[in-house]
Input
Amino acid sequence: MRKLPKAWKWIIGAWTAILLATLAFYYFTNWRYPVPRDSQTIIKLSRASGWTGLIYQVTIYDDGTVIYEGGSYVGTGGIRKRKIKPERVKELADMIEQVGFFALEDKYYPLVYDAGSVYLYAKIGQSEKVVVRIDPVPLNLEIPDSLFKIEEAIDKNAKTDQWVDCNFERSNLCGITPLTIVVGIFFSNLALCMVWIFTRKNKGLLGILLGLVVISIHGTSLIFGNWSVPNARLTQRFVIFEFATFLPISLLLIWWHKRKTKTMHSQA
Output
C-alpha cells in the first residue's frame, strides 16, 4: 500500500485540528444549551429596524438558558447561547410583574412608515402578554417608563452587549465567525492548489487567474451575505486579506517551481 507523502499528512492533520476547533467553538457557544421544554417563564426582547428587519432577539427561559439571535447592524450575527443563574430569571420575572407589565397597552405604535420597533413578550406562570412599541419614540407619544426599565433589565441580565456591540479595539474579527474563517481557508487552499497544479504544467499564470476566480466567488458570497454594518466592513477586510495573501504565495510557488526545475535540469 502506497504511503501518503509527508506534506499531505501535515495538511490532513492541520485540517482535522481546524475542524475540531470549529466544532468545539459551536458546542460551547450553542449546541450544549438545548431549548427548554414546558418552561413556565419565557421572557423575550426583540429589536427591529424598519428598513432591514430584525436587529437582534434574545429569549430567557426559567432554567437560565439565554438564546440570542443576531440580525443586521450587530457585531455578532446568528445564534448564540449562554446560561445565567435561575435566581436571576426569577428576579427579572418578579420585577416585570411588579412594574405592571401585564396591565400595559398592547401597542405603543402610531402609524409611521419604515419605523423601527421593540417587541416585548413575557410568559410568567399563567400570565402571558406581548407589548410592541415604536423605536425611536416620537416626541408626541408617551410611553411608560416601566417598559424601558424592562428592556434594560433584559439586556443587562442576558448580557446582550457582548454580541450586539462590536469592539474594534478588542478584536478586528468581531462579526466574523470561526466558520467564516474555516470556509475562507478552504477556498484559499483550493485556489492555491489550482495554482500549483497549473504551475507544474508550466501554466502558472492561468492557475493564478483561476485561483482569483475561486476567491472572487467566495468573496462575493461573503459580502452579499454579510452586508449589514459593521459586518460589511469586517467582511470586506477579510476578503481583502484573502486576496493580499493569495497573490504573494502564488508567485512564490511559481518561483520555487521554476527554481527547482532549473536545478534538476542543471544536475542532469
Remarks:
- The domain at 33-164 is CATH 3.30.1560.10 (Mago nashi protein).
